[in-house]
Amino acid sequence: MSYSSILFAEEAGVATITLNRPEKLNSFTATMHAELKHAVKRVGEGGTARCLLLTGAGRGFCAGQDLSDRVMGKDAAPPDLGHTLSTLYNPLVLSLRALEMPVVCAVNGVAAGAGANLALACDIVLAARSASFIQAFCKIGLMPDCGGTYFLPRLVGTARAMGLALLGDKLPAEQAADWGLIWKVVDDDKLAAESQALARHLATQPTKGLTLIRQALHQSAGNTIERQLAVEADLQRQAGRTADYREGVAAFMGKRPAKFTGS
Ligand code: T3D
Predict the structure, then answer these.
(1) Closest C-alpha to ligand 1, atom 42
(2) 3-state helix, strand, coil in the chain (%, to 5)
(3) Residues flanking ligand 1, CB < 6 Å
(4) Counted domains in the chain
(5) In terms of CB atoms within 10 Å, which of 15, 96, 222, 258 comes out highest?
(6) What's the gap in Å between 133 CA and the centre of ligand 1?
(7) What's 233's domain CATH number?
């Protein structure tokens, strides 16, 4: 499949997907959804990638749904947005979460609506100092989707989640980092290099172990302490059987750097 709305590259163990409709702030169209679906599947199933990096081209990261696809005539029936969530946005979020590798997001500019929540679905979010996050849904009569009502309260607490979702104010990147919504803010001119370096580092690490870490943290939110301890025992059992665990211990005991293969 050739892509028109995204860019795809794979190098040094890192698959990079760049949302690429910069003139419309990389807002989502059906084409972009189809291409993203294809690219994420390709990363998970095929190549040599051990980390996915998601970013945007131009001055925005992603402005959510392309609203020019949602203009309604006066007498037209409303679109079934539940259907677009069920068939497009929800599978996208779940496909990122299901990847067996870490997912880094480099938010290069404004992230609004589903674009903001797409970033929050990733494991480590870096943002350019000039970037911002906007739960823009309330401004057009919608509610946060793309996982927003799941991620926001868990990341920043109910009070801040409510304020962000009900007011739709622009949250500058630095405040997003202060509030724990994202991992880190980086100077604009360093974002691309720093996010690539981080992704390349992750791609050299024990991929199976990292996958088990993200699985455990994903499950944690809905679990009791008893259940989560059981999850840890189960996943640690799997970690203990990996070649990378064997290598990690041998490297530590041998006082040498570990060479992880991701297996
Ligand atoms: O529909 C479903 O399937 C349900 C799912 C919904 C998910 C959603 O994401 S709903 C929320 C949709 N997104 C928004 O409501 C955000 C709309 N955009 C904005 O509020 C602003 O553009 C920003 C705050 C993000 C940035 O503002 P600013 O001033 O920096 O840029 P701008 O001038 O508004 O935008 C630049 C261009 O991008 C402009 O095009 P033009 O006039 O130069 O030809 C603008 O129309 C276009 N653009 C920005 N966002 C969208 C968009 N075009 C279509 N859809 C957009 N979402």
Answers:
(1) 24
(2) 50, 15, 30
(3) 24-25, 27, 63-68, 70, 81, 84, 110, 112-114, 134, 136-137, 140, 142, 145
(4) 2
(5) 15
(6) 13
(7) 1.10.12.10
Outline where DSSP puts E strands in 72-218: 103-107, 110-112, 124-128, 132-134, 170-172, 184-186
**Residue 222: which domain range?**
207-254
The encoded tokens of residue 200 equal 């390349």
Q: Quick one: which atom of ligand 1 is closest to the CA of 89? A: 5
C-alpha 255 – ligand 1 centre gap (Å): 53
Indicate which residue's Cα is closest to atom 48 of ligand 1.
Answer: 24
Looking up residue 44, the CATH number of its domain turns out to be 3.90.226.10
Q: Residues for the chain: how many in total?
A: 263
- In the block, tokens 């609203």 appear at 67
